[in-house]
Fold this sequence. Notes:
By secondary structure, the chain is an alpha/beta fold. It is built from 17 helices and 13 strands. The protein folds into 2 domains: 20-137 and 262-306, Periplasmic binding protein-like II (D-Maltodextrin-Binding Protein, domain 2); 140-259 and 323-351, Periplasmic binding protein-like II (D-Maltodextrin-Binding Protein, domain 2, 3-Layer(aba) Sandwich), CATH 3.40.190.10. The chain is 45% helix and 14% strand. The protein is globular and about 60 Å long. Mean pLDDT is 89; it is low at 1-43.
Amino acid sequence: MKRRFISLLFTAVFAAGALTGCGGNGEVSTQAATNGSAAVEESKDVSLTNVSYDPTRELYAAYNELFKEHWKETTGGNVEITQSHGGSGKQALEVANGLEADVVTLALEYDVNAVQNAGLIDEGWLDEFPLESSPYTSTIVFLVRKGNPKNIKDWDDLAKEGVGVITPNPKTSGGACWNYLAAWSYAKKNISEDEEQIKEFVKKIYKNVLVLDSGARGATTSFVENGQGDVLIAWENEAFLSIKDYPDDYEIIVPSLSILAQPSVAVVDKVVDERGTREAATEYLNYLYSDEAQRIAGDNFYRPSDPDILKEYEDVFDLDVDLVTIEDFGGWNEAHEKHFADGGIFDQIYEN
């Protein structure tokens, strides 16, 4: 199944991002980010902690090995990297409450803002790296059992009686927020502009939810390993990993409309200044934009932000799927306040 995307949009956005200078102490240039990375003059050994979200385990297992080689080549020193994974919202809360992180690589901008609001990240983090500090993207698809026995083709099929849905909890999972917003967007475009009717449609989907796991990987486990449900609403990369592991058992359904999911990365300023790791932490995120790292993202089923490298994966990804963006919801602050804050629309439809 050939997968296509809106490459012209990425070309324009990536080009615009490449003109933006990196923040921090100005030790690494954005031009270096697009060409690989600037050589760091000082040689030293260092340890970093990357607090990330659930489905990036395989991505960073591979990237960390690449970065260790890069750091050794450019500084002569060694770097040790500790990973932490969980639901994105929960991870943000953990960092805000004291979990030490040199960098965060979370599922969405709002979760990084939560760490900033705790006084740990300086203002302007979104512009520190290209493309609003989003070095790779994803979208939301459906994972169904081989043969698609419930004939699930689009979001309206998830609202039908007798369809068991697996999706994580938007209160703790960033991927779950993207899932919910994609369903909302489908209803707005295809069912009604009336908000009450949209709410009723999304409510039907969540009435079919059998398990609300705390994170995306837990939801995958419920569907793939525990055999629950008929369809998993999933990150695209998470669905592809399931197909890779179980090629004869599952298949991916791309809905007619989905959402451009933009995971966000940031240096945790207060921590790196206390630990003296700013140089390494900045380079760690900067190097995600290198050609080598972009291909690691693609190999792990994330969409590279570099449009030229993205084209190398046009036989993997659907590069023509209709994608809304978070800007269609007024940005993350507005979307979270309306939909996911206590007493918001998600609480209203799920508790009732």
